[in-house]
Amino acid sequence: MVSLCLGVIVVTALWVCYQDIRFREISNHSVAITAVSCVMATSGSALSWIAWPVAFAAGCMLFAFRIVAGGDIKLALALLLGIDAVWWPTFFFITAVSGGLLAIGYLVFACINNTLPQLRQRGIPYGVPIALAGVCGVWLTAVDYGLLSFYM
What we know:
152 residues, mainly alpha, globular
Protein backbone atom coordinates (compact mmCIF):
# COMPACT_ATOMS: atom_id res chain seq x y z
CA MET A 1 0.00 0.00 0.00
CA VAL A 2 2.84 2.40 0.85
CA SER A 3 4.54 1.75 -2.49
CA LEU A 4 1.27 2.41 -4.31
CA CYS A 5 0.77 5.69 -2.44
CA LEU A 6 4.34 6.74 -3.17
CA GLY A 7 3.77 5.91 -6.83
CA VAL A 8 0.66 8.10 -6.86
CA ILE A 9 2.64 10.89 -5.18
CA VAL A 10 5.40 10.64 -7.79
CA VAL A 11 2.96 10.63 -10.72
CA THR A 12 1.01 13.54 -9.23
CA ALA A 13 4.26 15.42 -8.59
CA LEU A 14 5.24 14.98 -12.24
CA TRP A 15 1.79 16.24 -13.30
CA VAL A 16 2.14 19.24 -10.96
CA CYS A 17 5.55 20.02 -12.47
CA TYR A 18 4.05 19.95 -15.96
CA GLN A 19 1.14 22.18 -14.91
CA ASP A 20 3.40 24.67 -13.17
CA ILE A 21 5.92 24.90 -16.01
CA ARG A 22 3.29 25.10 -18.72
CA PHE A 23 0.52 27.16 -17.12
CA ARG A 24 2.02 28.49 -13.83
CA GLU A 25 -0.96 26.96 -12.09
CA ILE A 26 -1.34 24.00 -9.73
CA SER A 27 -4.81 22.48 -9.75
CA ASN A 28 -6.76 21.82 -6.57
CA HIS A 29 -7.38 18.25 -7.75
CA SER A 30 -3.64 17.56 -7.89
CA VAL A 31 -3.16 19.03 -4.42
CA ALA A 32 -6.06 16.97 -3.02
CA ILE A 33 -4.71 13.74 -4.52
CA THR A 34 -1.27 14.58 -3.12
CA ALA A 35 -2.66 15.29 0.36
CA VAL A 36 -4.68 12.07 0.54
CA SER A 37 -1.78 10.00 -0.82
CA CYS A 38 0.66 11.55 1.67
CA VAL A 39 -1.58 10.78 4.63
CA MET A 40 -2.21 7.24 3.37
CA ALA A 41 1.50 6.61 2.69
CA THR A 42 2.38 7.24 6.33
CA SER A 43 -0.96 6.13 7.80
CA GLY A 44 -1.39 9.65 9.14
CA SER A 45 1.40 9.14 11.68
CA ALA A 46 3.68 11.78 10.12
CA LEU A 47 1.22 14.61 10.74
CA SER A 48 2.55 17.00 13.37
CA TRP A 49 -0.41 18.63 15.10
CA ILE A 50 1.77 21.52 16.30
CA ALA A 51 4.15 22.12 13.39
CA TRP A 52 1.60 21.83 10.55
CA PRO A 53 -0.69 24.65 11.78
CA VAL A 54 2.40 26.84 12.20
CA ALA A 55 3.40 26.03 8.60
CA PHE A 56 -0.16 26.81 7.51
CA ALA A 57 -0.06 30.21 9.21
CA ALA A 58 3.37 30.96 7.74
CA GLY A 59 2.13 29.95 4.29
CA CYS A 60 -0.90 32.23 4.62
CA MET A 61 1.38 35.14 5.54
CA LEU A 62 3.71 34.45 2.62
CA PHE A 63 0.71 34.35 0.30
CA ALA A 64 -0.81 37.52 1.80
CA PHE A 65 2.41 39.45 1.20
CA ARG A 66 2.62 38.01 -2.35
CA ILE A 67 5.95 36.33 -1.67
CA VAL A 68 4.76 32.85 -2.69
CA ALA A 69 1.83 31.86 -4.91
CA GLY A 70 -1.20 30.11 -3.47
CA GLY A 71 -0.74 26.90 -5.45
CA ASP A 72 2.83 26.53 -4.19
CA ILE A 73 1.66 26.96 -0.59
CA LYS A 74 -1.16 24.43 -1.07
CA LEU A 75 1.25 21.92 -2.60
CA ALA A 76 3.84 22.34 0.16
CA LEU A 77 1.21 21.97 2.89
CA ALA A 78 -0.24 18.87 1.20
CA LEU A 79 3.21 17.30 1.01
CA LEU A 80 4.02 18.23 4.61
CA LEU A 81 1.08 16.05 5.69
CA GLY A 82 3.19 13.02 4.76
CA ILE A 83 6.56 14.26 5.99
CA ASP A 84 7.60 13.78 9.60
CA ALA A 85 8.65 17.03 11.28
CA VAL A 86 12.17 15.60 11.63
CA TRP A 87 12.50 15.74 7.84
CA TRP A 88 11.01 19.23 7.39
CA PRO A 89 14.42 20.97 7.41
CA THR A 90 15.55 18.59 4.67
CA PHE A 91 12.36 19.37 2.71
CA PHE A 92 12.93 23.12 2.99
CA PHE A 93 16.64 22.79 2.19
CA ILE A 94 15.99 20.74 -0.97
CA THR A 95 13.26 23.19 -1.96
CA ALA A 96 15.51 26.21 -1.42
CA VAL A 97 18.55 24.79 -3.23
CA SER A 98 16.67 23.35 -6.20
CA GLY A 99 14.46 26.46 -6.38
CA GLY A 100 17.53 28.69 -6.37
CA LEU A 101 19.15 26.65 -9.13
CA LEU A 102 15.91 26.78 -11.13
CA ALA A 103 15.70 30.56 -10.69
CA ILE A 104 19.32 31.03 -11.76
CA GLY A 105 18.72 28.82 -14.81
CA TYR A 106 15.61 30.77 -15.79
CA LEU A 107 17.44 34.08 -15.26
CA VAL A 108 20.41 33.04 -17.39
CA PHE A 109 18.08 31.75 -20.13
CA ALA A 110 16.06 35.00 -20.06
CA CYS A 111 19.20 37.15 -20.24
CA ILE A 112 20.58 35.18 -23.17
CA ASN A 113 17.29 35.38 -25.08
CA ASN A 114 16.41 38.95 -24.05
CA THR A 115 13.16 37.79 -22.44
CA LEU A 116 13.71 39.18 -18.96
CA PRO A 117 10.47 41.27 -18.97
CA GLN A 118 8.44 38.17 -19.87
CA LEU A 119 10.17 36.21 -17.11
CA ARG A 120 9.33 38.89 -14.57
CA GLN A 121 5.72 38.87 -15.66
CA ARG A 122 5.35 35.09 -15.82
CA GLY A 123 7.45 34.14 -12.79
CA ILE A 124 9.36 31.02 -11.82
CA PRO A 125 7.55 27.66 -11.47
CA TYR A 126 8.45 26.94 -7.83
CA GLY A 127 6.05 24.00 -7.79
CA VAL A 128 8.82 21.99 -9.42
CA PRO A 129 11.32 22.19 -6.52
CA ILE A 130 8.49 21.84 -3.99
CA ALA A 131 7.32 18.64 -5.70
CA LEU A 132 10.88 17.28 -5.87
CA ALA A 133 11.54 18.01 -2.21
CA GLY A 134 8.15 16.64 -1.20
CA VAL A 135 8.68 13.30 -2.93
CA CYS A 136 12.08 13.03 -1.22
CA GLY A 137 10.58 13.95 2.15
CA VAL A 138 7.69 11.49 1.99
CA TRP A 139 10.04 8.74 0.84
CA LEU A 140 12.48 9.49 3.69
CA THR A 141 9.61 9.46 6.19
CA ALA A 142 8.35 6.11 4.90
CA VAL A 143 11.85 4.63 5.13
CA ASP A 144 12.37 6.17 8.59
CA TYR A 145 9.10 4.68 9.88
CA GLY A 146 10.02 1.26 8.51
CA LEU A 147 7.07 1.35 6.12
CA LEU A 148 9.39 0.91 3.18
CA SER A 149 12.82 -0.63 2.82
CA PHE A 150 15.68 1.63 1.79
CA TYR A 151 16.24 -0.27 -1.44
CA MET A 152 12.55 -0.81 -2.23
